[in-house]
Amino acid sequence: MKIKHLFMAFTAFMAAGLCFAATDYDALLKKAEDNTAFYDTDFKGNYTIVQETPGEGKTVTEAILYRRDKNAKWTILVTGPAKEKGKGYLQFDNNIWFYDPADNRFTFTCARDKFQNTNANTSDFTPQHYYRDYKIDSTEEVNLGKLSCVLFTLSAKVQDADYAMLKLWVTKDDGLVRKKEDYSLSGQKLRTTAIPSYQTITSHGKKYSIPVSMLIQDNLRGKKIGDKLQYERTQVTITNAEFEKVKDTVYTKPYLEMMSVK
């Protein structure tokens, strides 16, 4: 009887341990999502976007991003180069608009559209919904360089998710995404994003983590240079990050129109 009772107790303990582990992974994915959003404050940052196209060289775009995540509003104002200056993007009421000052016109766009013909999507600059829009298919504890991570394999559970499948490398200690792979429904790898380091900004007694830079590789757009296939890449660098309230007018169409004539 004692052996039977010990076996039952051991089985219950192992089952509880499995549930605990599953809950931990679930919580870690939720933390990874929460780390990308700032619901208690506005955000402003300067973005430098360097597009590298094999055989064609590099192009550089400068922009300012404003976000008010609690209302799902954001504005991107392009500040350089001169020929692109004054263009902008705006999201409010779940709609995304692109503004071109050349013809003073707003056109409807979407989160999956490319930002200024780079490999970055407009959604790359906004909160990421790993937990809300995806379900966990599998988890694996791995090392990414010197970082201890959980590798999540996710599949979309809503129709308007950015991608059908994702793989995320999330550091176990702080819940920060260090690498991401985007896949089609058929399992084809579309993009790879690396986030090697983060910067911590303290504002009003609270700490926020944002990438120092992101390197996005388009696995569908490449060219053979010599004997090597080289893919298009975009590096996004973030500086002058601030977590302070921004004027309400910044998240409006008139703001982009006004800034385009300065």
Would you summarize the structure shown here?
By secondary structure, this protein is α+β, with helices and mostly antiparallel strands. 17% of the residues lie in helices and 49% in strands.
Walk me through this protein's architecture.
With 262 residues, the protein is of the alpha+beta class. It has helices at 2-34, 130-133, 253-259, and strands at residues 43-53, 57-68, 73-80, 88-92, 95-100, 105-109, 134-144, 147-156, 165-171, 177-183, 189-194, 198-203, 206-211, 213-225, 228-242. The strands form two sheets. The chain has a 13-stranded antiparallel beta sheet, with helices on both faces. Strand 1 and strand 2 (57-68) form a beta hairpin. The protein is globular and about 50 Å long. The model is unreliable at 1-23 (pLDDT under 50).
Radius of gyration equals 21 Å
Strand-residue fraction?
Answer: over 45%
**Averaged pLDDT, please?**
90
Number of DSSP-assigned strands: 15
Question: What's the total helix number?
Answer: 3
Shape: globular
| Strand arrangement in the largest pleated sheet | 6-5-4-3-2-1-15-14-11-10-9-8-7
Helicity, as a percent range: 10-25%
Low-confidence stretches: 1-23
Order of helices and strands: HEEEEEEHEEEEEEEEEH
Quaternary:
single chain
Structural class: alpha+beta
What is the straight-line distance between the termini? 85 Å
Main beta sheet: 13 strands, antiparallel
Keywords:
262 residues; alpha+beta; 3 helices; globular; disordered N terminus
